[in-house]
Specification:
heterodimer, A: Double Stranded RNA Binding Domain, four-stranded mixed beta sheet, two-stranded parallel ribbon, 6 strands, elongated, B: mainly alpha, Arc Repressor Mutant, subunit A, about 0% strand, RNA_pol_sigma-70-like (chain B), transcription regulation (chain B)
Chain lengths: ~180, ~190
């Protein structure tokens, strides 16, 4: 039996979603060179979300534990991201960090203001965020920075030495030497 | 639209690699989910939200500690069920939204080469039809969309709506009959 006009018109109401819907569901990851060597970086439609050294191989697991979204590899990341990774300067990037606690978020925001080639003590961050006694918590928040390198938590040091780093003190030394912050 | 629903390659791809397989799942069923979302919400922006939320919930179900069994999963019915459940949950938890209105971005379909009476029928534009579809009772609208917009078999519609097949069939025919009355009125008015 042929379809009548009404049925034909109804069949014409099917509609594909705009392409941007797929980007709201899936995140992308890419591998790029950086001052830390090869790094894996995940980003969502809101911005850079996670960064780990490629050698660790933990990017997907850690990203998904937090975001619970599919993560697809791309060989065509935004140019701004590749540039930022090459130079280690992530100041101009957008980040997807809304899941952080307000405290951790303020710590990382403060860390972003430290220029390349300079370092600050942990107490400086604590004072800057209006919580001068929270030095230990500042260290913890920096240690859980989901996007190290781009948000330069390596530029926060102890008064009597470099202090810890999420990827080890050797990596911290390399980064700060490369930036001319230490000899 | 009528595309045979063969979920086997899609499920195989999900088993092979969940994330790239999920991209295939999205590609295969995005039109189904989005069409249901658009006809249910009446708003392109809300339909995008609901489509994204549906697929995210589906993914989270797949990575959960109690994922659906891929050997028996019917992905299209599963996704459409998630979409309708999400819609009803949203309605319960959020402030109630106004019912779907006549505004959407369905294209007009009009062929000026037809004779006037025929053209009047064709002038039954997608926009007007969508508006009248929006005025049907919810279950009838969903049933008509699943049957006549998306070409699903009655058994699958019953599964998605969570009703017996006879009830699903009845929702479809009542909804279609109501639309047909309006359709004739529109055509006669144009004559």
């Amino acid at each position: 039996m042929p379809l009548d006009d009404l049925e034909q018109a109804l069949a014409g109401l099917a509609a594909a979603p705009p392409a941007r819907v797929f980007d709201r569901i899936t995140a992308r990851w890419t591998r790029a060179t950086s001052p830390l060597g090869d790094v894996d970086v995940a980003y969502t439609e809101h911005g850079v979300a996670w960064l780990r050294p490629a050698a660790l191989g933990t990017l997907a697991e850690e990203f998904k534990a937090r975001f619970a979204r599919p993560l697809l590899r791309t060989d065509h990341p935004p140019a701004a991201l590749t540039d930022a990774l090459a130079t280690g300067d992530g100041g101009g990037l957008d980040y997807d960090l809304t899941w952080l606690t307000p405290f951790a978020s303020s710590v990382l925001s403060a860390a972003r203001t430290i220029p390349r080639g300079q370092v600050r003590p942990y107490t400086w961050i604590a004072e800057r965020i209006g919580n001068p006694k929270a030095v230990r918590a500042v260290g913890s928040a920096l240690g859980h920075n989901p996007v190290p390198l781009l948000i330069p938590c390596h530029r926060i040091v102890r008064a009597d030495g470099l202090g810890q780093y999420i990827f080890g003190v050797d990596a911290k030394t390399t980064l700060l030497r490369g930036e001319g912050a230490i000899e | 639209m009528s595309r045979p629903d063969d979920p086997v390659p899609i499920l195989d791809a999900l088993r092979e690699d969940l994330d790239t397989g999920f991209a295939g799942l999205y590609d295969a069923y995005r039109v189904y989910v989005h069409t249901v979302a658009l006809r249910a919400t009446g708003s392109p922006a809300d339909a995008e939200d609901l489509t994204a939320e549906t697929f995210l919930r589906a993914y989270r179900s797949l990575i959960s500690t109690r994922p659906p069994d891929l050997d028996t999963l019917q992905p299209r019915a599963w996704l459409l069920t998630i979409a309708l459940n999400t819609l009803r949950n949203d309605r319960r938890t959020k402030a109630r939204k106004p019912p779907p209105g006549p505004l959407d971005n369905a294209p007009d379909r009009c062929d000026p080469t037809q004779n006037p009476a025929r053209a009047a029928e064709q002038n039954e534009t997608a926009r007007e039809l969508a508006a009248r579809l929006a005025l049907l009772p919810e279950r009838q609208r969903e049933a008509v969309v699943l049957r006549h917009v998306l070409d699903l078999p009655i058994a699958e519609i019953a599964q998605v709506l969570g009703v017996p097949e006879g009830t699903a069939k009845s929702h479809v025919s009542r909804g279609l009959a109501a639309l047909r009355v309006h359709h004739r009125e529109a055509v006669n008015a144009a004559r």
